[in-house]
Design brief:
With about 220 residues, the chain is mainly α. It has one domain. It contains twelve helices and two strands, in the order ααβαααααβααααα. This is Phosphoesterase. InterPro entries: PAP2/HPO. It comes from Piscinibacter sakaiensis.
Length: about 220
């Protein structure tokens, strides 16, 4: 915990400004595509698993926690170059997802009938984030990307297995929430997992020679 805590103040101004600017730019682009798709949106097909998954509005909070979760890797990176690398790779992931939304607009079937008066948080979500820009699920893609970077950071500081398991559990809760509050269907989540996993693997394994040499020597993020 001391090692992780010592990393947070490093480049704090850049982390705070960069994360805020990144999320602002993403939401501007996301809602622009949501409000003005390039063509008719294709309804994603349902599977038997979709029919079996219940509607659990309480998972809204796991869904919303993504915007804290994706900021954790940047907060816990202690060096400038990996910090910039994380932002650039995450930017590439988001741009590729937005390109999918532009080239292939998709939507999900209407959410099941619920009494929104009993679920104000879910009602707010439905009012702001319509059931478009469905496939791939960027919620799942960004969560798996952040989870991979956090696992790498936790290994570097020799974090206990319980903390690493908590990271994976948080990721799993976010991914499951996309289905449990009916913002996405199974195929959206599968596509998001593949997209985020590919970018996560590339970001942690495709290195320029200098960075590869530092990694081989065990130098931390």
């Amino acid at each position: 915990m001391a090692q992780l805590g010592a990393r947070i103040p490093r480049w704090l101004w850049l982390k705070a400004f960069g994360t805020t600017a990144f999320m602002t730019a993403f939401f501007v682009a996301y809602f622009a595509l949501l409000d003005a798709p390039s063509g008719p949106a294709l309804a994603m097909p349902l599977t038997a698993l979709d029919a079996a998954i219940p509607f659990v509005p309480g998972f809204f909070w796991a869904y919303a926690s993504l915007w804290v979760y994706v900021g954790l890797p940047a907060a816990l990176i202690g060096r400038l170059r990996p910090l910039l690398g994380f932002g650039l790779w995450m930017g590439g992931l988001c741009l590729s997802g937005l390109a999918c939304f532009w080239l292939w607009p998709t939507t999900v079937p209407p959410a099941p009938r619920v009494d929104l008066a009993q679920h104000p948080a879910f009602a707010l979500l439905q009012g702001v984030d319509a059931a478009g820009n469905a496939c791939p699920s960027l919620h799942v893609a960004c969560a798996v990307f952040a989870a991979a970077w956090l696992q790498r950071i936790l290994r570097e500081v020799d974090a206990p297995a319980l903390l690493r398991a908590a990271n994976l559990a948080w990721f799993a809760a976010i991914a499951a929430s996309t289905l449990l509050i009916k913002q996405h269907v199974v195929w959206d989540a599968v596509a998001g997992l593949a997209l985020g996993g590919a970018w996560a693997w590339a970001s942690l394994h495709l290195r320029i020679p200098a960075r590869a040499a530092r990694a081989a020597r065990g130098q931390p993020l």
